[in-house]
Amino acid sequence: MNGLTVRWSLADAPDGVEEELASYVAGTSHARFSAMEGLHLKVWRCVPGEWFEGCYVFDTDEERAAFQAEFTENAATVPGSQMVGSPPILIEACEIVAIAEGGAGFRAAARF
């Protein structure tokens, strides 16, 4: 499987940006990626004051590469970059070795 990680630094981001990002994910981004063809899953992660990240798992390398190329071209102007005040510090393709669904099951939600 084909992964992609996109990470923004929050070190110099405005105060309260974590809440703004979480609200954007819940109100807009979650629905967009829930319906994306070729995407198995996306996880949004955050360490407040340090970084905000999107982790993507695509079905094929071609789908990942196409998304990565388009995203990279527009990285400085995507909503996350506008909220944080800077473009991503990392856009990195990777290979997903395995995914396990634990005993608690998988739960998709726009916000936890």
Quick gist of this model?
This protein has 112 residues and is α+β, with helices and mostly antiparallel strands. It has 3 helices and 4 strands. A hairpin with a 3-residue loop joins β2 and β3 (51-58).
Indicate the topology.
Layout: E1 2-9, H1 17-34, E2 39-47, E3 51-58, H2 61-74, H3 79-84, E4 90-95
Antiparallel strand pairs: 1-3, 1-4, 2-3
Protein name: Monooxygenase
| Helical residue percent band | 25-40%
Please indicate the count of domains.
1
CATH overall fold name: Alpha-Beta Plaits
Whole-angstrom Rg = 14 Å
- Structural class, by secondary structure, is alpha+beta
Low-confidence stretches: none
The CATH class is identified as: Alpha Beta
Biggest sheet descriptor:
4 strands, antiparallel
Q: What's the architecture in CATH terms?
A: 2-Layer Sandwich
- Give the H and E element order: EHEEHHE
Protein name: Monooxygenase
